[in-house]
Amino acid sequence: MSQNNLKEKIRKKTAKVAVIGLGYVGLPLALEFCKAGYTVFGVEISRKKLKQLAAGDSYVLNVPGRDIVKYCKSGQLKLSSSFEVIKDADTVSIAVPTPLRKTKDPDISYIVSAVESCRPYLHKNMLIVLESTTYPGTTRELIAHEIEQLGFKIGRDLHIAFSPERVDPGNQFYDTKNTPKVIGGITPKCTQMAKLLYEQVIDQIIPVGSTEEAEMVKLLENTFRAVNIGLVNELTLMCDRMGIDIWNIIDAAATKPFGFMPFYPGPGLGGHCIPLDPVYLSWKAKTYNFYNRFIELASDINGNMPRFTVNKLARILNKRKKTINGSKILLLGITYKSNVNDLRESPGLEIYEMLKEEGAKVSYHDPYAPSFTDAQGRSVNSLKLSASVLKTADCVVVVTAHDQYDLKLILQNARLILDTRNQFKALKSKKIVKL
Fold first, then answer.
1. Residue % of the chain over a pLDDT of 90
2. Among residues 78, 117, 76, which one has the least CA distance to residue 96?
3. pLDDT the model gives residue 375
4. Is 395 one of the annotated active-site residues of the chain?
5. Measuring CA to CA, how many Å separate 415 from each of 196, 387, 390?
């Protein structure tokens, strides 16, 4: 009867939904549930974020602050730093970070902490869905087994599933609602319950056979991208030695209407997904005495692109009888990808630190990141882009290709440009050196 009860609540939208972790994944998801008519408990342990949200200050680009204010005022969105609200929730979606430790081992402490914090408030007739990217087996090992210890029967008293987030920050077309969502439960009934919930707010649901299958889907998606980016980055290193323009090669190959998908080189990988997720898979595979050589090779190549960028900069300065030491270097963009304010794992930060270590006088301009904290804990502010700022730089390095750049201003006033993102595309100028 409890299972039918929960289904009825979900269908009638009287179920109360809890979202744990109001970051790039959790906040948009919480808003989608609000838009569909559900009451949502937004649980976030960062009091700074809660203050921002309460003031209508959204730190996620595709979530308007006015929507947060609207649903908070109506009472549909209830923000809290306390997990006690879970006792009144019917469903719980966990969207907490899953970074890597310095040793490159998965850091699942945020998931463990979230589950531990929920434990006292769990009850029958409930659905729990993990959305945080992680290795296959996490949902069963860290959530299902723990909850079974409390005496709940999974698939009868309480339902558990995994549904990987598929957020693409800055994407102007695909968002939480229109991106197909993969769901796999501990039991078939768990899958059905999670499917029922998410199909109320998301256009297309893709059920799979288990939580492990759903966990693997996310890792395959990002490993596919990481390996192919690693391939094109390796070809970039080769073409650099051969004096061949890799961008022209990719553009020509992309005209083939079948059997080829273009990937592009860059100064390194950033964001939460592509640099980290394949490492989760590789780590888990080793527990089965299996070694993912493609993943480890791609990680090595991609991880060395920031240093290649700095080395190339040293070479082009050397041709002009300059050294990095003492040169004024202006970085255009510090975020990890175009048109977003996300600094996670950004290669720009690594390039900044490498240049500082080499004695360069480094500054940056980024319309999406007014400041960041460097490795020494100091705040570094973005410069306003002007003709004088460009003219005083010995070299301008395009690290991130934002649409907001005034390319005409840059081209007219920069003395030298190292373009790592093909921002200037087909433009030919003696000032421009491509990666």
1. 90
2. 117
3. 93
4. no
5. 59, 11, 8
The dihedral over CA atoms of 406, 409, 411, 416, expressed in degrees to the nearest 10, equals: -110
Of the candidates 365, 402, 341, 344, the residue with the CA atom closest to the CA atom of residue 63? 341
Q: Write the DSSP symbol of residue 119.
A: G
Report helix, strand or coil for 9.
Answer: helix
**Distances 433 to 204, 243, 274 between C-alpha atoms, Å:** 44, 12, 27
Which residues is 185 bridged to in the sheet?
Answer: 161
CA–CA distances in Å: residue 403 to residues 38, 60, 115, 250, 338:
36, 18, 41, 21, 7
Q: Give the span between the Cα atoms of 382 and 364, in whole angstroms.
A: 5
**What is the per-residue pLDDT across 64-115, written as a single tens digit (0 to 9) for each?**
999 999 999 999 999 999 999 999 999 999 999 998 887 778 899 999 999 9
Q: Measured between alpha carbons, how far is 126 from 128 in angstroms, rounded to an integer? A: 7
Closest CA to 89 of 146, 32, 15, 7: 15
∠ Cα 37 194 1 (to 5°)? 90
Catalytically annotated residue among 190, 239, 273, 395: 273
With tokens 């009287």, the residue in question is 14
pLDDT in tens, 342-363: 999 999 999 999 999 999 999 9
Q: Hunting for tokens 């600094």 — which residue is that?
A: 343
Contact 140, 127 (CB under 8 A): no
pLDDT above 70 coverage of the chain, percent: 99
Q: List the beta bridge partners of residue 128.
A: 92, 160
Mean per-residue pLDDT, 156-173: 91
Q: Would the pLDDT of 270 be above 60?
A: yes
Instruction: Decide: residue 151, CB within 10 A, 0-12 exposed, 13-18 middle, 19+ buried.
Output: exposed
In DSSP notation, 39-86 reads: EEEEE-S-HHHHHHHHTT--SSTTS-HHHHHHHHHHTSEEEES-GGGG
Q: Which of left, alpha, beta for 263 (phi over 0: left; psi -120 to 50: alpha)? A: beta
Q: Which pLDDT score is estimated for 2?
A: 63
Residues 17-57: tens digit of each pLDDT: 999 999 999 999 999 999 999 999 999 999 999 999 999 99
pLDDT at 1 over 60: no
Q: Identify the bridge partners of residue 14 per DSSP, sorted by sequence position.
A: none
